[in-house]
Design a protein that fits this description.
Length: 159
């Protein structure tokens, strides 16, 4: 495993066999990903490092995306990358920036004061239950998400 320092001073991880190829360019962090820009005939193109590693640069992927298994967008080792459908990638997403519970799939019901656990399957909300604590709701979410989403589930870390 080798690393490349990007413009923010952070490191992106690469396998030894892709390091020499990727290290010939300067990489920038954009939305947490390592990317670069290049110009051909006055047209600017952008490419993500994880696409370069998987060899899908310039390929139309349609509804397919590259997922970082461990959630670290700067870990571009082949073992951490997989091609998935958009819905599978969203299941493996981390906490949203507007999350207030600290847990994925857990929200406070302000009317009752209870914590609700829920997830989405095929654009339909699945109500898991109502709980006295956020931790109980997170545990319930983890159980359902593991069953519903399998290896694509991003589970809550319970303290």
């Amino acid at each position: 495993m080798k690393t490349i320092i990007i413009n923010t001073g952070k490191q992106t991880l690469l396998d030894d066999d892709t390091y020499n190829y990727a290290n010939q360019w300067k990489w920038y962090e954009v939305s947490g990903y390592a990317r670069r820009e290049y110009r051909i005939f006055n047209k600017t193109y952008r490419v993500a490092l994880h696409h370069v590693v998987l060899g899908i640069v310039g390929e139309a992927t349609g509804t397919l995306e590259v997922d970082h298994v461990n959630g670290n967008r700067l870990d571009n080792r082949k073992e951490n990358l997989r091609i998935v459908h958009k819905a599978e990638n969203q299941r493996n997403a981390g906490l949203r920036s507007d999350n207030t519970s600290g847990y994925k799939g857990v929200t406070l019901d302000k009317q009752t004061g209870h914590w609700k656990a829920q997830c989405y399957r095929r654009n339909k909300r699945i109500h898991i239950g109502s709980f006295n604590t956020a931790k109980e709701a997170a545990l319930a979410y983890n159980k359902v998400a593991s069953k519903e989403f399998g290896v694509y589930a991003r589970l809550n870390k319970i303290n």
